[in-house]
Amino acid sequence: MPDDLLRQEGWERLAWVVDPELGIDVVNLGLIYRLGVRDGGVEVVMSLTTPGCPMSDSMPDAVRRALQSIPGVGTVAVELVWEPRWDPEMMSESAKHALGWR
Q: Which candidate, 20, 14, 29, places its Cα nearest to that of 99?
């Protein structure tokens, strides 16, 4: 699969990964900072809503599994970062509305 199509499919698969506490996917929450694709390999840089988030072990694994489910994907690397710190302003408008934020 060409890298541009893999990138598009990657974003679509990441939208299936839902934060179980908030009920909103990691894309709309603004937790995915970067999705890189090169020669069939995928690299994600992501954060969580707080450093003490109880999902700190399971969310990166869920992201990895979602991307590995794409046919033809080679390696998947997920890096969890705390800088820049996640802020509610990073959420999509639909996520803000769903959470009653603003």
A: 29
How does pLDDT run across 71-89, given as a tens digit for each residue?
989 999 999 999 999 999 9
Q: Domain residues for 86?
A: 3-98
In sign, the C-alpha dihedral spanning 56, 70, 84, 24 is negative
CATH number at residue 69: 3.30.300.130
3-class SS at 7? helix
Half-sphere exposure of 22 (CA within 13 A, CB side): 27
Q: What is the pTM of this model?
A: 0.92
Looking from the CA of 93 toward its CB, the CA atoms found within 13 Å total 0
Which alpha helices (H) appear in 31-101, and where do they start and end? Answer: 58-68, 93-98
Distance CA 41, CA 93 (A): 30
